[in-house]
Design brief:
With about 400 residues, this protein is of the alpha+beta class. It contains 13 helices and 16 strands.
């Protein structure tokens, strides 16, 4: 695995699926009543391979529900994968950080469009180019121009993460790789996905709240939404326990982990408590969170929803769309995609040993959430992306023209 390839996988951790040209929507009604198990279990079984140890899938709508698993959750012990496993969500957890910021903005505790200098000290700000022009909204919708910390040095962040796998690391840990680095562009000039922006937002949250943001996430979001299998990894008790995640370095003899050997990354990823990938959850909780952000409920207000996914705040995005030629935007922690008059919301996430996908389609009240216990490997990610694309096609009734 070359340096260029692995940096691309880490920076583009949000990529969801393979672009497929010439697609049309069939003349069938969304969410038709079918035997979900007969439809999805074979797809799930076929996903498991020498590159993907195990997988979980949830598909639910007003017409039916499927939750299933395949393969192994532990390679050494050959323990079967189960649908209730809890996994780090990677970048799919960004919507949790964005949601907390939007809630605090509604209460007047922070201002999404005020300069971040309102919340941070001069010493920290002096190490970030154009910090005087950045806002929280810039950080959360990837228009800040701040450099991606995974792009600094040769495996610098992962080497440090690997070396400190027995210690909890929070948002200042990845930020140190971005300090005193040139920005990609001035804030608001254009869009470029950056995990660093979310880490910096996490530092702002901690300073404003005077405690780690996990406590506010617990009291304001996880508990009210009854997300009982979810927690902020690293800083909250891991209950239920994280499932093992597996990474294999099958290309680069100079990479920090051994060549052609499956490495269990649970202890590495489980101690990283950063706001760009804060959440561990099961597929049901993950689906519940995205649905609650998009659909009216008693926990999340219309004002917060408008800040996150309202048309007036969306920015044109690039890269991780499902359908070629779709309208494609980023809000706060969520992609909004529209294809053939069908609008849906999504965000995937990958970390070493883990890959997740989270999709919600309002028309039909359809949730799709999928997990595999591998990640940052071309074969694993390519097969998983194709799988999630096929599942989405099946519920949207999309077929090749």
């Amino acid at each position: 695995m070359s340096l260029l390839k692995i940096k691309s996988l880490l920076k583009l951790a949000f990529i969801t699926a393979i672009l497929m040209p010439n697609l049309v929507v069939a003349n069938k009604q969304l969410g038709q009543d079918v035997d979900y198990r007969d439809k999805y279990q074979p797809m799930l079984d076929n996903l498991v391979s020498k590159h993907i140890p195990g997988a979980v899938l949830l598909v639910e709508s007003k017409h039916g529900r499927f939750i299933g698993s395949a393969g192994f959750k532990d390679l050494e012990k050959k323990q079967p994968m189960t649908p209730d496993i809890v996994m780090p969500n990677g970048s799919a957890g960004k919507k949790l950080t964005a949601l907390l910021v939007a809630m605090l903005a509604e209460e007047g505790i922070v201002n999404l469009d005020a300069p971040i200098s309102n919340y941070l000290d001069r010493q920290l700000l002096s190490q970030i180019q154009y910090s005087d022009k950045m806002t929280l909204r810039h950080l959360l919708n990837h228009t800040s121009g701040i450099i991606e910390y995974n792009d600094v040095g040769e495996y610098a962040f992962f080497k440090a993460q690997y070396a400190l796998r027995n210690e909890v690391t929070t948002d200042m840990f990845p930020l140190r790789f971005a300090f005193n680095q040139p920005a990609d562009f001035e804030p608001g000039e254009r869009y470029s996905y950056s995990n660093t922006g979310y880490a910096l937002a996490g530092v702002i949250l901690e300073r404003v709240l005077e405690e780690h943001p996990s406590k506010a996430i617990r009291s304001r979001i996880l508990a009210p939404l009854e997300m009982t299998a979810s927690y902020s990894k690293g800083v909250e008790q891991h209950q239920p326990e994280l499932v093992s995640g597996f990474f294999i370095n099958d290309e680069d003899p100079h990479f920090p982990t051994p060549l052609n050997e499956w490495i269990d990354t649970k202890d590495i990823i489980g101690t990283t408590a950063t706001s760009d990938a804060p959440l561990a959850s099961d597929v049901q909780d993950m689906a519940k969170l995205l649905r609650a952000i998009v659909r009216e409920n008693k926990v999340i207000s219309e004002k917060v929803r408008a800040e996150m996914i309202g048309n007036e705040h969306l920015v044109a995005s690039w890269g991780p769309r499902f359908y070629q030629g779709s309208d494609f935007y980023y809000g706060l922690g969520i992609w909004v995609e529209k294809f053939n008059d069908k609008q849906f919301y999504h965000h995937g996430g990958t970390e070493f040993g883990y890959f997740t996908q989270n999709i919600y389609i309002p028309d039909g009240d359809i949730s799709i959430t999928a997990f595999v216990n591998c990640g940052v490997n071309e074969q694993c990610e390519g097969e998983f992306q194709k799988f999630t694309f096929e599942v989405l096609n099946s519920v949207l009734n999309v077929k090749n023209n």
